[in-house]
Amino acid sequence: MSKIKDSLKKVSIHVGLILGVIILLTFIFLKVFLPSYTNHGETVSVPDLEGFSYHEVENLLKSSNLNYEVNIDSGFNAELKPLTVLKQIPKAGNKVKSGRKIYLTLNSQNAPLIKMPNLVNSQLRNVQEILANMGLVRGEIKYVPDIGDNVVLEQKYRGRNVPEGFEIPKGSQIDLVVGDGLGNQILAIPNLVGMDEVDAEFLIIGSGLRIGKINYITTDTIPQGTIIRHLPPAGAEVKTGEPIDLWISELNKDTNF
Q1: Whole-angstrom Cα distance, residue 74 to residue 119?
Q2: 33 — phi, psi (to 5°)?
Q3: Is residue 68 part of a domain?
Q4: Are strands 160-161 and 210-219 parallel, antiparallel or unpaired?
Q5: Pairing state of beta strands 167-169 and 43-45?
Q6: pLDDT digit string (tens) for 158-186?
Q7: How many domains does the chain have?
Q8: 110-125 pLDDT, tens per residue?
Q9: Is there a contact between 94 and 81 (Cβ–Cβ < 8 Å)?
């Protein structure tokens, strides 16, 4: 019986020693070897690389013990120099392990070609939005006499008219020739005094002029809707598209006929 107890005791001691060794080795592996192998706890902050040139990035990442890889797809920003960093992954400020690879998107060396849109006969305010959406820059605006008020008459690239569909580099400057709304034809103002309001407006528009401000004057003697006065006056010479202000009779509400 005592021999059995001695044997069990020896087995227990051996098992305990084996378990102790296993626990010790596990502790050394988890707390010493594994952290040193994976750089556990050693993190660096990703620097802000956007706006830096490709050559500057290499030194910045090297000093931070980080690597990099350039994405095949590139972007384009006309305001930045070629090979400037447009985007980075991970973002600046993120904590990563030492030696982590940072993926970079660079500004293309050559601007991509886009097809010129048709801006002619469009309002200037709409044209500016179209240019911005397509990545083009609105250049010089030259106003010329034309009855089209702020209407684009010509679109130019590098001093020459550029037709719709012509390929130009993205970021190019487009100059515009725009109508001033007046025109260059000289007209004499017709005499509108005494005319009916409807007839006068018809004559004004038919003459290439515009209706300006309308003023109503209360009167007991002149039929309602009659032109009493207008500016510029009859005989004055103006350009096409000029506005004509009218003074029109209006009956006194207290007058009975």
Answers
A1: 29
A2: -70, -50
A3: yes
A4: unpaired
A5: unpaired
A6: 989 999 999 999 889 999 999 887 767 78
A7: 3
A8: 788 899 999 999 999 9
A9: no
Q: Kindly report the CA angle at 222 between 219 and 226, in degrees rounded to 5?
A: 105
- Angstrom distances, CA of residue 56 to CA of 22, 27, 48, 52, 62: 50, 44, 12, 6, 10
Give the CATH number of the domain where residue 61 resides.
Answer: 3.30.10.20
**137 domain-assigned:** yes
pLDDT above 90: percentage of residues in the chain: 32
Contact 231, 244 (CB under 8 A): yes
Using alpha carbons, list the distances in angstroms from residue 58 to 52, 78, 86: 10, 23, 15
CA distances from 117 to 48, 163, 174 (A): 37, 8, 11
Two tokens, residue 192: 């509108």
Q: What angle do CA 15, 18, 20 make, to 5 degrees?
A: 110
Q: Which two tokens stand for residue 86?
A: 């447009």
Q: Please tell me the distance from the alpha carbon of residue 153 to that of residue 121, in angstroms, as a whole number.
A: 6
| CB contact at 8 A, 137 and 118 | no
| Domain limits for position 192 | 186-251
In the three-class reduction of DSSP (H, G, I as helix; E, B as strand; rest coil), residue 94 is classed as coil
